[in-house]
Amino acid sequence: MGDLATAFPADDTSVSHFSTLLSGELVRPSDPSYDRHRRVWNGSIDRRPALIARCAGAADVIESVRFAREHQLLTAVRGGGHSFPGLSVCDDGLVIDLGMMKDIRVDPERRTVRVQAGALLGELDRATQPFGLAVPAGIVTHTGVAGLTLGGGIGWIMRKYGLTIDQLLSVDVVTADGESVTASDDVNTDLFWGVRGGGGNFGIVTEFEFRLNPLGPYVMAGPVFWPIEQATRVLRFYRDWIAECPDEVMTIAVLRRAPDLPAVPPEWVGRHLIGIAACYAGPVDDGAAALAPLKAFGAPILDLCVPKPYVDHQATFDPSFRPGCWYYVRSCDVAGLNDDVIEITAEFGRRIGSSVSSLALWQLGGAVARVGDDETAFNGRGAGHSFNINGNAETAAGFEAEREWARAFWTALAPYHTSVYVNFLMEEGEARVEQAYGSAKYRRLKALKRTYDPGNLFRLNQNIRPD
Q1: Which residue ranges in the chain fall short of pLDDT 70?
Q2: CA 197, CA 176: separation in Å to the nearest integer?
Q3: Which of 53, 76, 119, 403 is 20 to 30 Å apart from 282, CA to CA?
Q4: What was the pLDDT predicted at 5?
Q5: Domains located in the chain, CATH noted
């Protein structure tokens, strides 16, 4: 069976009937709220769907999938709307918007949490942190739990506790035929394997159940910054230092221009910096000892690595990834930081033009690497670092120059590319999706796609075609 059609053939009667079946809201282009609900986080994306189904629960999702299937509609699924390439909205088709589905239920005795698919990371943290518990998930609070999880889920405490998917106990999924099923280690195990890294290819997850881990509410965390002229020295120190760090230490090296924020000395605003942001997933005193060498290296111009609530640390990068800016990313994993990779990184860090462009160089390893490679669809557990090269702009002005910087940076690293994190892909074609999973997993994922979505209804994603 080929892909479903992209046109919008539904007549007014069928649309009106569909509207009556929803407990939530069906938004049309003529509605006053249409522009607000069609917008996504990436301001460079400007698409106009024919309908937006704002679902109030799983029953609405079922009705929406059945309507899309019956009328062969191009269908986008929106959780937090944080997709870099804007895959959570489409032109002319149907957007199934899960944003109203925010119920979060914590069981502190069992150390589990059930999370509906419209919840954001900040909302999840605020629900779990009063109990001193957390799910390893992301670094920007307005990211959607659903999209982050389905791609794997990297974040501040993953070296201690693993990826977000490594804490996943079960999911409730609406499949392409409009049926609701549960998947876990005990039931529909093939589907459970696939949703742990395979994205939204196999259905719409309406609810997640996670294992919770002890953390906080205070952690030793935050960034330390040096002038960009010291980037090579800092990165060489960083490479040697993290080689001996315990799993509790997670770091991200950041290269950017200093933002105009209250914590930044006015004389440094706009200047190129290198920073190492860290989080210690354990007692604050232990974290202070573990991170002391970082804070003592060289002569930092700004040290924001201090004891703080975990929920505050999770919001550290929120101002750098504001909704509405124009975003473009190139990404790759590398095995390690050899001298050549360090020199390339330092050189391109000095070339950053926009105040919102940046490099985030993620440290991997630890618990991430100790899960068997075949246990989940996620690929790249053996990588040392993940490059997230953001060529961003406040508006369309200058955006193409920032994108070209990101492309050139990525190309310069090409001799050292290994895998790539699927959540950091733009619309880069089938070959890159296959690279994200590796050939063997990609074949297994295609077979799973033929089972659960042979018509490729769910194709506005990093798509695994069923053919």
Answers
A1: 1-10
A2: 18
A3: 119
A4: 44
A5: 12-97 (3.30.43.10), 104-214 (3.30.465.10), 218-424 (3.40.462.20)
